[in-house]
Specification:
- By secondary structure, this protein is of the alpha+beta class.
- The protein has a single domain, classed as YaeB-like fold (2-Layer Sandwich).
- A hairpin with a 5-residue loop joins strand 2 and strand 3.
- It is globular, with a radius of gyration of 13 Å.
- The N and C termini lie close together (11 Å).
Length: 121
């Protein structure tokens, strides 16, 4: 079963990415983006460019109720010609105040060791 639309509205995600002070990029995602040659501002700019077609799935970890949206961006942005994997969430969708980015890496780095499950409505 696949979710056809993101759990978090893309317009909210993009607005938060534009307001840099409302973004939390976890240490791992920041390190990953830098390893790919992106500055913090460039990584956030990529998030503002996301399109509905780049949405891949929503997931949650088996031991948590936290829901993440995953986007996979075409290979034009990376010199390796691989796709860019971005995982993010809004901590409280009813009160859109922050965007949390957990992953920002080459898609090939991603493995299915997340123990994730689809969270559908």
């Amino acid at each position: 079963m696949t979710r056809s639309t993101p759990y978090y509205p893309l317009s909210d995600v993009q607005a938060l990415a534009k307001a840099r002070d409302r973004c939390i990029i976890l240490r791992r995602a920041l390190r990953e983006s830098r390893e790919l040659g992106f500055t913090l501002d460039q990584a956030l700019e990529v998030i503002t460019w996301l399109t509905p077609n780049e949405y891949d799935r929503s997931l949650r970890y088996i031991d948590s109720d936290v829901i993440w949206d995953v986007y996979i961006v075409p290979d034009q942005l990376l010199p390796s010609r691989r796709k860019l994997y971005i995982k993010l969430r809004i901590p409280s969708p009813s009160m859109v105040h922050q965007l949390v980015v957990t992953s920002f890496h080459d898609e090939d780095v991603f493995t299915e060791n997340e123990d994730s499950t689809f969270h559908g409505n």
